[in-house]
Amino acid sequence: HNITGPLPPEIANLTNMRSMIFERNHITNPLPNTLPLMSKLTFLDLAMNRLWEIFPSWLCTLPAIETFDFHDNFLRGTLPAECYNMITLISFDVSSNFLDGTISDAIRNLTSLQSLQLGENTFNGTLPETIQFMTNLTVLDFSLTTFDGGFPSWIYNMTWLTGLSFGYNDCNGSFPAEIGNLKELKVLDFESNQFSGPFPEVLFSLTQLEQLDMSFNLFTSTIPDSIAILRHLKYFYASGNLFEGQFPCASLAQMTNMSILNIRNLLLNGTMDGCFVASSNITEESIENNMLSG
Fold this sequence. Notes:
Layout: E1 4-5, E2 19-21, E3 26-27, E4 43-45, E5 67-69, E6 76-77, E7 91-93, E8 98-101, E9 115-117, E10 122-123, E11 139-141, E12 163-165, E13 172-174, E14 187-189, E15 194-198, E16 211-213, E17 218-220, E18 235-237, E19 244-246, H1 249-253, E20 260-262, E21 267-271, E22 284-286, E23 291-293
Parallel strand pairs: 1-3, 2-4, 4-5, 5-7, 6-8, 7-9, 8-10, 9-11, 11-12, 12-14, 13-15, 14-16, 15-17, 16-18, 18-20, 19-21, 20-22, 21-23
């Protein structure tokens, strides 16, 4: 974690290297344009560094790359056309940068892609409908982006998705019942939107959920006892809504996989006594600013 300055061009002499991980350092630009000479490199992780440069087109010409992770840097500009020809790519994460422009329909060329993380950039235009034809894609994140057109209805066709994140996108109104089509979801994050109405019952049909983040919306009424149906749930975030009424203690006691519970800043009442007797997995419990006892 103490590597500073640019990577040396000579790093490309490591022609047999398959994995290069420099996450959480202080690496700066310029990136060496010799990297594509590393013909066996399949895993490149330069996340959480200090790369300020315009996204170089040659970076998308790594011949064998499968995992490409540059999240939490300061990369600027548009995604180069070369990025849509990375046919070996399995995971592509450029979230939390300053990328802009549009995402091309040609993204469907990435037929091996399983994880696409575009969140926290300033892309414009619409999220391409061609993404729905990428049948190997199981994780899609477009949180805190500026795509036009609201939530894309074609996502409901991607019934094989296991992870979907679209927080901070100004979605409003009732929560879409069509999300219930996505029965394979394990991670669902729609925090910091403006969805309203009671707790969405459609969520109870997503019985594979392990992580649910619905915090900072405008949901009202209670957290129903039927939440116990989500028996695989490990991480539950619901803070910053308008939930009120009785805390579903008995239901949570049945959810023995629960590890993180965040329900602060609500209007729940009742007791916490005995809620987690059956569960020894709770590592983080945030319940402050309610009217709970015990």
